[in-house]
Design brief:
The chain is mainly beta. Helices cover 0% and strands 30% of the residues.
């Protein structure tokens, strides 16, 4: 994955190591973008280090977060609007 350093509008095409990556959604700083396609169970690499596994297919340019990946090392939690663990 690549980490967003500044806001990016949906539909923007980025040059990532000479490869065009068209982002599918708007992104804010700190979020992760898939720079290659992934299948379920593929390792998700951030800065060359595995941070977890894809839980479903992820296309180039997609947002990579709790909805499509899980940590292989610590439990992945999502909080509801009430602050409860989902």
């Amino acid at each position: 994955v690549a980490v967003v350093r500044c806001p990016i509008e949906a539909g923007t095409t980025l040059d990532v190591f000479g490869q065009p990556v068209k982002v599918q959604h708007a992104f804010t700083m700190g979020h992760k973008i898939a720079i290659r396609g992934m299948s379920a169970c593929d390792k998700v690499l951030k800065y060359g280090v595995s941070i977890g596994s894809a839980t479903q297919a992820i296309a180039i340019g997609d947002h990579v977060h709790l909805h499509n990946m899980k940590s292989d090392y610590t439990p992945t939690y999502a909080l509801t609007e009430d602050g409860e663990v989902a």
